[in-house]
Amino acid sequence: MITEILAQVTEPAHFFGIKLMNTSDFLELMARFIFNTLVVFALVRYLYYPVAKRKEYFFTYMLVSTIVFLISFSLIKVDKLTVGIALGLFALFGILRFRTRQIPIKEMTYLFLVIGISVINALVTKNTSYVELLFINTMVLLVAWIGEKYLMQSKENSKTIVYEKIELVKPENRDKLIEDLENRTGLKIYRIEIGRINFLRDTARIRIFYTPKSDKDHLEDEDKIAF
């Protein structure tokens, strides 16, 4: 009799058939969310942002990580859908494209990392230990750090230019073309690629490759300049 009374007292309150609070699950959610946020923050703030200096993407990555994690953690409660949810969300967000403008390759890569980390941290089962989870997240940060620190030391930026001096596009005028482009852009150009040539408008698309002198010289691949 006493056992039944204690069971009724300690039983969580329900509201329309739903538990008002499940203490263990809530604590697990909080712990995982804080852990995931710290990992993503370290990835974006200390690996991506010091190089790219793009505040808008920093803000976007944090929001994307938050919503992906919470969606994944919420849906994992549905029985027999764990694997399907993991693969479905990973594929869906992995091919995500913002319709307003194209995302550069590097920013898209970091977006993929942010989504992948959030999905892993949310959908990991109890069969995976916290040490294994910590190792997975650490490896992602380590690989990204090595890439930014050593593989991306020599920054190569590129820019597509619509150029009007069509006579300088000729191979024999390559040096004069590079000199003119350097004078107009103020950049030290070490390589160019000549693309589509429009003889009706006397214009040519030229892709210039340069090493930025400072963070202010950082230009996106999809940007275009018309001379």
Report on the architecture of this protein:
With 227 residues, the protein is α+β, with helices and mostly antiparallel strands. The chain has two domains: 2-151, no CATH class; 157-226, no CATH class. 56% of the residues lie in helices and 14% in strands. It is built from seven helices and six strands, in the order αββαααααβαβββ. It has helices at residues 2-10, 23-52, 55-75, 82-94, 105-123, 130-151, 174-185, and strands at 14-15, 18-19, 157-163, 189-198, 203-210, 224-226. It has a four-stranded mixed β-sheet with strand order 4-5-3-6. α4 (82-94) packs antiparallel against α5. The longest helix has 30 residues, at 23-52. It starts with a helix and ends with a strand. The relative contact order is 0.10. Residues 5-10 and 218-222 have low confidence and may be disordered.
Mean pLDDT comes to 78
Tally the structural domains.
Answer: 2
What structural category characterises the helix and strand content?
A: alpha+beta
Count of helical stretches = 7
Low-confidence stretches: 5-10, 218-222
- Tally of extended strands? 6
How much beta, percentage-wise?
A: 5-15%
In this structure, how is the largest beta sheet organized?
4 strands, mixed
CA-CA gap between termini: 89 Å
Strand order of the largest sheet: 4-5-3-6
| Helicity, as a percent range | 55-70%
**Inertia-based shape:** elongated
Q: What string gives the helices and strands in order?
A: HEEHHHHHEHEEE
Rg, rounded, reads: 26 Å
